[in-house]
Amino acid sequence: MKVITITGNKPMELNIRNEKDHRIFFIKEALKQRLLSLIDDGLEWVIVSGQMGVELWAAQVVIDLREDYNIQLGIFPPFLEYESRWPDIYQELFLEIKEQADYYQPLYEEVYKAPYQLINKDHWLIDKTEGCLILADEEYPGSTGYMLDKLKKAASESNYSIIFITPEDLEEVVRSYQDSIDGYS
To answer: What's the pLDDT tens digit per position in 77-87?
Structure first.
């Protein structure tokens, strides 16, 4: 795959209340591990809408990986001022990432009008990519359930790839990290 999208839960769905939550480190580490594997297999672009939570954290990981790898980041929010109703910390993070993206373009050159903008954003991301890296619990997907339904449909109708990062994968990242720290003790 040369182009993927990444999505996942919003912070509140993960019970993350602020950007200093230690669990974000492990989420980013899991994203980084999967992205490195995909880069080794030829990944060139990651495109996201820039939704707060997993998408913004993934964008940060891609920006960090650009220092050592030939990977690019595209941000395609569904409409103008996408971030305007988010908490200040996520608005600031979105604007920071927007400035560092290799490409930025809202899909609709207007502010929010109706749910069709969000629905069409999901379809657009799927149409422009070969696969999706999704961090979610498939049994309790939260807001990612809407995108997950579309991803599963795309996978059943074509060779679209869905790569999950599950709660168990996150637990493994935490265990590996703890084992590496214990090795230094």
So the answer is: 999 999 999 99
Q: What is the DSSP code string of 74-104?
A: EE--SSTTTTTTS-HHHHHHHHHHHHH-SEE
Query: Residues 49, 124: contact at Cβ < 8 Å?
Result: no
**Chain CA centroid to CA 25, Å:** 14
Task: Copy the structure tokens of residue 130.
Answer: 């070969």
Q: How far apart are CA 6 and CA 22, in angstroms?
A: 21
105: left (phi over 0), alpha (psi -120 to 50) or beta: beta
Q: Give the whole-angstrom CA distance, residue 121 versus residue 34.
A: 24
**Residue-range definition of the domain harbouring residue 126:** 3-184
Give me 73's structure tokens.
């980041």
Q: What is the number of domains present in the chain?
A: 1
Please report, for the domain that includes residue 104, its CATH number.
Answer: 3.40.50.450
Helical packing angle, 23-40 and 167-184, nearest 10°: 100
Contact of 36 with 71, CB cutoff 8 Å = no
Q: What is the pTM of this model?
A: 0.94
How high is the mean pLDDT of the chain?
94
| Cβ neighbour number for residue 179 with a 10 Å cutoff | 9
